[in-house]
Amino acid sequence: MPANLQPPDPEQLAMAVRGGERAALAAALNLLDDKRPASRSSAIALMTELQTGQAAKNSRLIGITGPPGAGKSSLTAALISVWRQRGLSIGVLAVDPSSPISGGALLGDRLRMKTSSEDDAVFVRSLACRGQFGGLSAEVWPMSLVMLAAFDITLIETVGVGQREIDVADMCDTTCYVAQPGSGDSVQFLKAGILEVPHILVVNKEDMGAVARRTLSELGAAMSREHSEGNWTVPVLSASATNGSGIEALADVMEQHHKVLREQGLIKQRRQHYQGKWILKRLRDEFGSNGLTRLGGTDSILDQLQAHSSTLFEHYEALRQRLL
Amino acid sequence: MNQETVKRDRPWLMRTYSGHSSAKASNELYRVNLSKGQTGLSVAFDLPTQTGYDSDHPLARGEVGKVGVPIDHIGDMEALFDQIPLGQMNTSMTINATAPWLLALYVAVAERQGVDPAQLQGTTQNDVLKEYLSRGTYIFPPEPSVRLTTDLIAYTVENIPKWNPTNICSYHLQEAGATPTQELAYALSTAIAILDAVKASGQIPQERFQDVVGRISFFVNAGIRFVEETCKLRAFNRMWDAMAEQRYGVADPKKRRFRYGVQVNSLGLTESQPENNVQRIVLEMLAVTLSKNTRARAIQLPAWNEALGLPRPWDQQWALRMQQVLALETDLLEYGDLLDGSPVIEAKVQELIAGAEAEMARVADQGGMVQAIESGYVKRELVQSHTLRMRNIESGELKIVGVNCFEQTAESPLTAGTDSGIMKVDVQAEHDQIAGLQAFRAARDQQAVDKALMQLQEAAAGGGNIMPSSIECARAGVTTGEWSEVLREVFGEYRAPTGIDISMAGQTDSAAMDAVRAQVRSTGEELGRPLRLLIGKPGLDGHSNGAEQIAVKGRDAGFEIVYEGIRLTPAQIARAAQEEGVHLIGLSVLSGSHLELVEDIHAELEKIGAGAIPLVIGGIIPEDDARKLKAQGVQAVFTPKDVDMNAIMTTMVGVIRSANGLEA
């Protein structure tokens, strides 16, 4: 029987993932993507294994979002090389849109992220968003947990132009919004409601000169500088992925934000909150709001999840079984 | 009629695009071709030379001497032109990213032959912009590439006045799927980008700028729709004349002439019933010769068996004889322009001009050709045109004899020989070339080399003209890889947009397509997740039509496609396949180095524990090699005769099924 018909042993897989073994990492990501019942329960066991060991590792989960063409992938590539110089390992989840007709997708982000093929400390997995309303496919959150277990930094890159599409912020510690110079659009979108979401704003392509400077000052003026979560003043930066300027500063600010979260002991709490929201979303996608009502309503579910925070994924599966 | 009194026009330059294995072997071929009545040379360089790598670079493995001659240093260039007096030769070099370097070597060899470089005649293709759209032998980003092009133009206008410093190419655009209107628009927009850059560089005084315009020539394609093609050339003629006069103020009509060379279409040549390619080639040649006022200055014809593999000397001779029969036996050259005054021709010309002007305006609106390339716009337009063409072939709307109609054929004696009707490059050639290179490096004056490279670095970083220091490098014994490496460090390397992110309507209306989609979806369901396919283009070959078309079709069929563009190493492909968790790797190789590349990719996959991922390949792959590839474990081999894209998709799904233990 070919190897991939038998789900791998979750415990061994989790250990190999933590050890940064690339083949295991690839297998774990494939497993989380796999909808077959046997794979599904293996996946739940894997998530539980990984979750147990997670808190110990001081790894960071960063989201990069922004309109198409803003240069998110090039910026990611530039960040990767700065992080590599700082001795950090990086896992990237790059989300691309799917075709509504065929379900097929062109996953093109690797092209712009091309780094050294010999570097074991960088791992890129592309994902199609597969028609998910929020712009992120349902697998992203569990996959990011796998990446977190293996790398110092996990970065989720996704297209986000409107309020509804910025749910990358609902699963990351730090969300960075990349704006395109000269597109009044970015400012419009920011005004339209995602103003509150990002922790960091960056205007890419500062090599474009005056246009980039104007966008920078417009955004600076439009932003409410104090983040709604408190204790954080949203910095508005300027960078250029093309000539590498401003990238070090961006990496510094990201690190600073992480430090602030950690000092306040928010990381664990925040990730549990996101896991809860993700589970709610999965349940809603699968069973509709009726299903949520049958489980006692949103608040009750979140309370239950809170109570089962160490076995979150098993509890999620138990909730599913109640509805099936 | 009295034969004595008939005044015939002088025929065009007759060339054969050739070069292979080594400088010595290519030199012998050139001398034989010249003795057969060829009147100029057209040098084909191998891919390492075109992309700036020495023959012993890891990326050059399997590519040395394959699609052209390897030139590592002045010794190779000298051997290439041994006993060919450069003062009397007209040499065309298909060279782009490394054009300044190859011209520098040519100048240095002329000096050694005692020829004054000012006397040299010939052409450097030197049009990097089209390389981002087709063919793919670019190295640097567009901006420094335009600067190198500009430097070469400025240098030759001053120092080698009879040289054609650049051949603006619409040829490769047609090969990438361009319609006649797109060919006109993008070639002329490229000419504008280059001329504007020369002007802005300030290297040529205003009063001599018309000499620059006068030296610009074009390299054009001619497809099988020969009436439309001849109209396209008349449109080119008229648009170029108007542009030179109005935009660049060239008063002298001679310096506004649309001068062009031709290689006729390869895209339409077929692997099935390949003998039919002979009549295709002859008809395409008519398109560029019929009209005296727009006749080609130089013609090179492909060989009838190009879609099968490398042509043999006899195949190339046949192509040359086609030209000779048209020029010498027929009465074509005895008449004035045959088409002047035809209202039908005139209407078509007007239609093409209007379409081209509209597209040129769209390019100009985006800031010009460089910007329209960087944004991916032009590439997307081309991929879209080519996808449409493939779709029409598949549906039978576009008829290709022997491919989608009249497929029955008697057995061909032409391809039945022991050599399968193609040329094979001696594998020993690569070893010999590397040994020669290493001996050359050991024997040269390293101090002179270091000094020359330092001067090159200063010129590149400082903005001085790149040619004088390049010529000094050539004299000092610098290698192709060293020259390129200095510039890579100064300018950086570039990856061009792939253009596959097009969205096209009308894909749902075919039953065959629906069936393929159902297979892709259900197999994905059985395997628990959507099918993922990595399309890999390993090696230095940049002909990406096949890879792009499979990517677009695969997306439409429901695959999740990972495609990173051209020029990947086997290690990069293997790692990407693992990281992305793909079910299948599809490789595209057109340079003939498929055996070496597949062997390397298999080894890399095994090394990282991803050996279970199945592999299929497409390309110009002779039957013998296809058998070897299958013996190496390749699950399917596709060649140009596989035009049914739905069938290709079905085969790929089948490969995935069997690799995962699912029933066929």
Describe the structure.
The complex is a heterodimer of chains A (324) and B (664). Chain A is an alpha/beta fold and 324 residues long. Chain A is built from 12 helices and 8 strands. A 7-stranded parallel sheet of chain A has the order 4-2-5-1-6-7-8, sandwiched between helices. The longest helix of chain A has 29 residues, at 266-294. The mean pLDDT of chain A is 82. In chain B, helix 10 (276-287) links the parallel strand 9 (260-263) and strand 10. Chain B is 48% helix and 9% strand. Chain B has helices spanning 23-35, 47-50, 74-80, 99-112, 142-159, 171-175, 180-201, 209-215, 226-246, 276-287, 313-329, 343-365, 369-374, 377-395, 428-443, 446-462, 466-476, 480-491, 511-527, 545-557, 570-579, 594-607, 623-631, 645-659, and strands at residues 13-15, 17-18, 41-44, 90-94, 121-124, 163-164, 167-169, 217-220, 260-263, 298-300, 532-536, 560-563, 584-589, 615-619, 636-638. Chain B is an alpha/beta fold. Chain B folds into 2 domains: 12-331 and 340-395, TIM Barrel; 511-659, Rossmann fold, CATH 3.40.50.280. In chain B, the strands form 3 sheets. Chain B has a 5-stranded parallel sheet with strand order 1-10-9-8-7. Chain B has a 5-stranded parallel sheet with strand order 2-3-4-5-6, with helices on one face. In chain B, strands 12-11-13-14-15 form a 5-stranded parallel sheet, sandwiched between helices. The chains are: A alpha/beta (324), B alpha/beta (664). The interface between A and B is large, with 37 and 44 residues. Strand 3 (105-107) of chain A pairs parallel with strand 12 of chain B, so a sheet runs across the interface.
